Amino acid sequence: MADQTLDTKGMNCPLPILKAKKALRSVPTGGTLEVLATDPGAVKDFAAFCRQTGNELLESNEHGGVYSFLIKHTA
Amino acid sequence: MTDAAMNEDSLDNAKSMSLIVTKGTLDWGYPPFILATTAAAMGLNVSMFFTFYGLNLLQKKLDLGITTLGNPGMKMPMMGMHMGMPNMLGMIPGADGVATGMMKKLISKKGVASIEDLREAAVDSDVTMIACQMTMDLFEYKLDDLIEGPELGGAATYIETALKSDINLFI
To answer: Which domain does A62 fall in, by range?
Structure first.
């Protein structure tokens, strides 16, 4: 279970990334944030976001049209 | 090293992006604000230079529109198909208003952020905004007409920033 969950279903680029960045601020270092999204572009975007910011993308899944990303707050 | 010192250090070493924003319509307002807010979220230092019609995006009260004129690439989804916007349409009084209304409806239906929200996010994430002094003068705008935050600058200010930036875009 993630420490925090952020629901961005129905939102379009760049809102899922912007909201995730904001949400990560309240996740302690070492903690995890789960982001739910329906924007298919978010798959590549969250991978790029994590590579660039140094946060760790632990999981990237899709289930019934909903994407979920598990991000470890490391940076 | 203290945490604060480390943060400052990493901020100095951060990548950076500069944008020249020249257009002030509802559609063209998106790319600069989307890229600026996303880059800021990814840890970049971002500077936006607003010049000519781009200054329209800094007005306190935004009144952005689109025009159907001269844009054969604009195909709006309508009744299950995509409809082009012939130039003739633009001659009908109120046509641009209708097109703008359609676009705004699509924007909210598709979960796309409003320009106002993206602009606020840019201000909140400390994006540097420079308003071009020459075009401010040309169009008789005062800093007072703009939102809080933008500073006045000119071409030299931009060139200096661009020289230090990893990404430079003209939109």
So the answer is: 4-72
Q: Do B113 and A21 touch (CB under 8 A)?
A: no
Helix spans in chain B (H) = 3-12, 30-41, 95-109, 115-124, 133-138, 155-164
Task: Report in angstroms the alpha-carbon separations of A50 from A13, A28, B31.
Answer: 16, 16, 22
> What's the complex ipTM?
0.86
Whether B151 maps to a domain, the answer reads: yes
Options A3, A4, A6, A13, the catalytic residue = A13
The pair of structure tokens assigned to B141 is 């705008």
Which range among A21-30, B24-33, B66-75, B117-126 shows the weakest confidence by mean pLDDT?
A: B66-75
CA distances in angstroms from B137 to B38, B146, B150, listed in the order given: 31, 13, 15
Find the CATH number of the domain harbouring A56.
3.30.110.40
Total-model pTM: 0.87
Give Cα B3 distance to the centre of its chain.
Answer: 34
**Strands A66-72 and B16-21, sheet pairing:** unpaired
- Residues of chain A numbered 3-22 and touching chain B (CB < 8 Å): 10-15, 17-18, 20-21
The answer to whether the beta carbons of residues B149 and B171 sit under 8 Å apart is: no
Catalytic, A13? Answer yes
The tokens for B29 are 């307002």
